[in-house]
Write a structure and sequence with these properties.
By secondary structure, this protein is an alpha/beta fold. It has ten helices and eight strands. The protein has one domain: Vaccinia Virus protein VP39 (Rossmann fold, 3-Layer(aba) Sandwich). Helix content is 32%, strand content 20%. The chain is globular and about 45 Å long. Pathway: Cofactor biosynthesis; ubiquinone biosynthesis.
């Protein structure tokens, strides 16, 4: 069924926002939302993706907050057990839980070098993580880093695909789930068929929507992969004067924390704009938003 729950209408005033939607929306749009200029830009950043002190440092620091937000969304409806840690999962694969407890399928869209995807694959409730990105260089970086952990490779829970969300094959789940346990509530499991592309429990899109050509089309494509009752969860930068000062003027031009051209302020999206569009779509469920800000010397803080 498609879950429809009371919507949270409070909007963030802060620099960044984590957003989530539950339910499922049907769409037939298939043209690509990928920006060739963005692909070229992130290719140049690929080699430094896993440097905790490099241009992706802020993303590394934000990862625990991503897991915390997902945990809140899941626990708020009582349908799924909360297992997300308040700190990133260990670099060693978590094998503490029985295989029967691994039920959650993730699809990480615009995964980059795999910061979130790797950590999600190590959670004790994770059945699989499929991570996709249209930039070949960053996918190669992600695969190389994954191979540093033989246990993660042998588990088969994490796969990287060099593709866009629009070009993602409907059979992508079968690549690493052919021998994995399935839940009794899955229609595909009951019929003995391979799980379909709409049986993803959690689709994530962290720091992606501000880099695509068509945000609305991109959201539709992502939501098509979410199972009824699942979640579409992401983070993006609010289009405010504060974000222009911090992410463009200071981070790019003054402090050079990230290369120039990493961000396009005109592509930043306000939570109110996302919510207004989502409210107009049929089949989109509960809306949640959490404002967060990075405080130098302190880290990410909810505001």
């Amino acid at each position: 069924m498609i879950s429809v729950r009371p919507r949270i209408t409070s909007l963030p005033r802060e620099l960044r926002q984590l957003i989530s939607l539950s339910g499922r929306h049907q769409s037939t749009s298939s043209s690509s939302s990928v920006s060739s200029s963005e692909v070229s830009h992130f290719s140049a950043l690929a080699s430094s993706w896993w440097d905790p002190h490099g241009p992706s440092r802020i993303l590394h620091l934000m990862n625990p907050l991503r897991h915390e937000f997902i945990s809140r969304c899941r626990s708020s409806v009582g349908s799924l057990p909360s297992s997300s840690p308040t700190s990133p999962p260990s670099q060693a694969l978590d094998t503490s839980g029985p295989e029967a407890s691994r039920t959650l399928r993730y699809l990480d869209v615009g995964c980059g070098g795999g910061i979130f995807a790797e950590s999600a694959a190590r959670l004790p409730t994770t059945l699989s993580v499929t991570a996709v990105d249209p930039t070949p260089d960053v996918i190669n970086v992600a695969k190389t880093h994954m191979r540093r952990d033989p246990g993660l490779v042998q588990s088969g829970r994490l796969q990287y695909l060099n593709t866009s969300i629009e070009d993602l094959s409907p059979s992508f789940l079968s690549t690493n789930l052919s021998a994995a346990p399935t839940t009794s509530t899955s229609p595909a499991a009951e019929s003995g068929k391979t799980p379909s592309q709409t049986q993803i429990d959690i689709v994530t899109m962290f720091e992606v929507i501000e880099h695509v050509n068509s945000p609305h089309q991109f959201l539709e494509q992502c939501m098509q992969r979410v199972k009824p009752g699942g979640w579409l969860i992401g983070s993006t930068i609010a289009r405010t004067l504060t974000s222009y000062f911090t992410t463009k003027l200071m981070a790019e031009d003054v402090l050079r924390i990230v290369p120039r051209g990493t961000h396009d302020w005109d592509k930043y999206i306000m939570a109110a704009e996302l919510k207004k569009w989502a409210d107009e779509q049929e089949g989109w469920g509960e809306w949640r938003v959490m404002g967060v800000m990075y405080v130098p010397g302190v880290g990410w803080r909810e505001c």
